[in-house]
Amino acid sequence: MNRGLTAEIDLNAVSHNLKVIKDIARNLPVIAVVKADAYGHGAVKISGRLINDGVEYLAVAFTGEARELRDSGINAPILVLFDPDAEDIFKYGLVPVIGDKKTADALSKEAERRNTALNVHLKIDTGMGRLGFAGDPVKEILEIAGMRGINVEGVMSHFSEADIKDESFARMQIASFDSVRKELLQKGLQIRLFHIANSAAVESLHESNFDAVRPGIMLYGYSPVLTSNLQLIPVMTVKAKILTIRRLPAGAPISYGRTFITKRESLIGVMAAGYADGLSRRLSNNAEVIVRGKRVPVVGRVCMDLTMIDLTDIGHVEAGDEAVIIGRQGNESIDADELARRADTIPYEILTSIGYRAKKVYY
Ligand SMILES: *Cc1c(COP(=O)(O)O)cnc(C)c1O
């Protein structure tokens, strides 16, 4: 989609962030989460770089996302977290995550019909309350492991907090995951990959790392841990063009609802980006962008396609200049964490909603 925003994607930053993850996870296999178009960064390009850097597994949410990767020539194993569509799974050689017996049954029958064996990962609900075996997971897993055409390559679970603020609950989840793991191993099941660690757990709960780690947001340069001191590099820089600059007198209302009135003669820039580009309307009168190395405020409501900024204080500026919405310019920088705080959300939502729609440029 070619709208107002350009997202510059720094693939070297992805490599750097992967190395940070590998270092703290002591070189365990990384199942790189590239769902939602790699959190808005472009799944094909990001996956290509990650595989080049030795990542052995990718994870997406839906088979449609995996299909896009296969169509672009990516042959690495792909875990499909949420959508075990049998036809796509076999057609594209994907590894489904299964959390109920009915799905396992259907896939087993299909594998038999095709005279093949399917690798699957099974999911245990240890407290997320979303998907997975809850009652007696060992019994369910043993039954599925006995199905024809099914090879249980992995068993996984998911933390109920992306930032793991409450470590006691996360530790309970780890303990319950580990007890299932021990029981399965005791019963002689050969399962290669037990995994539960999202980004926050990679960083702060090393005992959760087991056979592989499953980070997402960290690859893109953000830590969900508030007190993080990891040297991650944000991968995405987001810029908008300033279409027009207008000189308005004091007392001029700006944008829908007249929520901003100029207090002085003002230079108001009109930026080619709005909520249709993923710039939340909650940033109305409540964000800054960087123009010519200086921070300037968003004034008035964010519109569908346009957003106004107050350029009065920055000296020389021209129509056609760029405004940095996420990124660094001069001594200033704005990251997705800042926008998330202002919009009362999380950087995941900022990156996916802006990145998804922006024209992407890779370097
Ligand atoms: C999205 C997701 C992840 C990655 O989470 P981050 O917090 O981005 O590291 C891992 N596992 C599952 C099941 C997910 O849905």
Your description of this structure?
There is one protein chain. The protein is of the alpha/beta class and 363 residues long. The protein has two domains: 11-220, Alanine racemase (TIM Barrel, Alpha-Beta Barrel); 236-345, Beta Barrel (Lyase, Ornithine Decarboxylase, Chain A, domain 1), CATH 2.40.37.10. It is built from eleven helices and 18 strands. The protein has helices at residues 11-24, 35-40, 43-52, 63-71, 86-91, 101-113, 137-145, 167-186, 199-204, 336-342, 347-357; strands at 5-9, 31-33, 57-60, 78-80, 95-98, 118-123, 150-156, 193-195, 236-248, 253-254, 260-261, 266-271, 288-291, 294-299, 307-310, 322-329, 332-334, 359-362. The strands form three sheets. Strands 2-3-4-5-6-7-8 form a seven-stranded parallel β-sheet. It has a six-stranded antiparallel beta barrel with strand order 9-12-15-14-13-16. Helix 10 (336-342) crosses helix 11. The longest helix is centred in the middle third of the chain and has 20 residues, at 167-186. It is elongated and about 80 Å long. The structure holds pyridoxal-5'-phosphate (PLP). Pyridoxal-5'-phosphate (PLP) is lined by residues 33, 35, 81, 158, 162, 198-199, 214-217, 224.
Can you describe this structure in just a few lines?
This protein is of the alpha/beta class.
Ends apart, CA distance between termini: 19 Å
Question: What pattern of helices and strands is seen along the backbone?
Answer: EHEHHEHEHEHEHEHEHEEEEEEEEEHHE
Low-confidence stretches: none
The small-molecule ligands in this entry are: pyridoxal-5'-phosphate
Widest beta sheet: strand line-up: 2-3-4-5-6-7-8
| The CATH superfamily title of the largest domain | Alanine racemase
Q: How many domain modules?
A: 2
What is the CA-atom radius of gyration, in angstroms?
Answer: 24 Å
Shape: elongated
The number of helical elements comes to 11
Largest sheet: 7 strands, parallel
Fraction of residues in helix: 25-40%
